[in-house]
Amino acid sequence: MRRTLLVVPAAAALAVVTMGLASAQPVSTNPAATPTLRTMDISLAQADAVIAAARAKAAELNTKMDIAVVDAGANLKAFSRMDGAWLGSIDISMKKARTARFFDMATGEIGKLSQPGGPLYNIEHSNGGLITFPGGVPLKTADGTIIGAIGVSGSTVENDHTVAAAGAAAIK
Amino acid sequence: MRRTLLVVPAAAALAVVTMGLASAQPVSTNPAATPTLRTMDISLAQADAVIAAARAKAAELNTKMDIAVVDAGANLKAFSRMDGAWLGSIDISMKKARTARFFDMATGEIGKLSQPGGPLYNIEHSNGGLITFPGGVPLKTADGTIIGAIGVSGSTVENDHTVAAAGAAAIK
Amino acid sequence: MRRTLLVVPAAAALAVVTMGLASAQPVSTNPAATPTLRTMDISLAQADAVIAAARAKAAELNTKMDIAVVDAGANLKAFSRMDGAWLGSIDISMKKARTARFFDMATGEIGKLSQPGGPLYNIEHSNGGLITFPGGVPLKTADGTIIGAIGVSGSTVENDHTVAAAGAAAIK
Amino acid sequence: MRRTLLVVPAAAALAVVTMGLASAQPVSTNPAATPTLRTMDISLAQADAVIAAARAKAAELNTKMDIAVVDAGANLKAFSRMDGAWLGSIDISMKKARTARFFDMATGEIGKLSQPGGPLYNIEHSNGGLITFPGGVPLKTADGTIIGAIGVSGSTVENDHTVAAAGAAAIK
Q: Global pTM?
């Protein structure tokens, strides 16, 4: 069976490696070897700090929030539901966090494109359900590597985004 | 299980009334009126304490755990995934917590009854999937009122249960 | 497995092209017999070529894509996710490929009809979720028989469609 | 709001960091800073090599296989269905790959524990469906870091496992 897939030039493949699922550098220095990607991921200590910062901001705004943090693979890392926060926001906060990591951008940005007549109309039907209004924000290290995402739901979308951004700011 | 919710002292019940979804004393003194249940529910501060206790026990056992806490309504309240803990245990820890609250008993007890030939054979097919091996434990106040449940997954079922029990002990 | 699919004369195949789910000519010359359909389907070697062409075009455009190929039965045949490509595009690329084969047209064509007020409004709710913006293209043999579809996601819908078309061009 | 979660000793947290979602070393050398995990992930070039090796072994055994590769986050990276391979094995191969990464072990090992009377009875009901018979194998670098998993389905479970192991051996 021919390996047509391997005809992609190695240089092109390497050029693509420089962004994405965590910063990616070939591990091997042997050009004949197949490289493993070097990536980064959020730690639980970081996720704790993100949720603490989001809860503090939510309290400051006198809101009650559901707050979810996912890792670089979009898998749940930590979650808190403040007393009295909406039950329906459990799933929404998780979907916002996943959506932000799925596309490496704030959820509200996707929502601008998924309106009727927009280029991504009804993208929300994919991935078991996306949430594309504000409240989901990627989590980035100081050098810009995305290591996860936070999703917040429980108030206005403006408040949700403000709280998510406050949580994201806890990552240095 | 009998209505353990009704043994809650009125004073304790009143103290909780302002906080939410919870336990059961008739509000009205008018026998003609339809009584509303007074219930009790776990607070986020309690859930934090449960998860902190579980994480400390997991570290003590040199294990890496996924830990979920649900409230009296079996809805997710808090979650932590320790660094390096199994990805497949995210869902299992949540299902253990829900299963424990769904039936107000430790998950391992249900598993004894769901074996081939047993009275609850394949009960795991209900509720979008139950987990009936050890690691899920109800969360009870000092007087026995169930206010939620904890589910732990990431090691042997014995360790999972030990860590869940340590978390549950944080509720006084 | 015998390749009965390939014994269909080209002329017969052409006669049927307008009808869709594989070509349909009675096998039997006995008018009393129930005819079996002779169909055509994409081979894995063809799917490899489609994906290699799409990956080459994606690299040329400096994009990172998720690329899915489905067969004549709309079942997944091959898939590649380029390093750093969006996680959310795994499902979208598959849904684009299926959608293109489900209706034997480019996904963007369906999207024109599924807008509010349009004749296929919210068709995305069917089939476990459709994606109806550009990036899905049917795969056709030289004589126009549809043998599968490609779905691409990871950049603008214009780039997605360009890469999908480049992949489709690999089928001769 | 008290940060009870942060009372976990830093030393304990760091001790946990050394295994898991790719090898994990704190990025920061400042003990006061919250560390980001350094992880590793499979590249598409590696996934191509894994699938090529599995296809070659499948052909050698005169079998027709569905072959799936997931990354460190258990998200699909690459997939091939050989001509004539079972349609039902598309989902099974993916579930085997995910299951192997979910628990960082060969799927058959889990199946030994999930039998009636076993400690993990009916674990298959979690995670949207697990497959716990042989055919799923973690993908490890030379130093033992798990960077993904392969799942194979289409023949006997013995053949499925043999082909998966041949694919896994392509990672050096």
A: 0.84
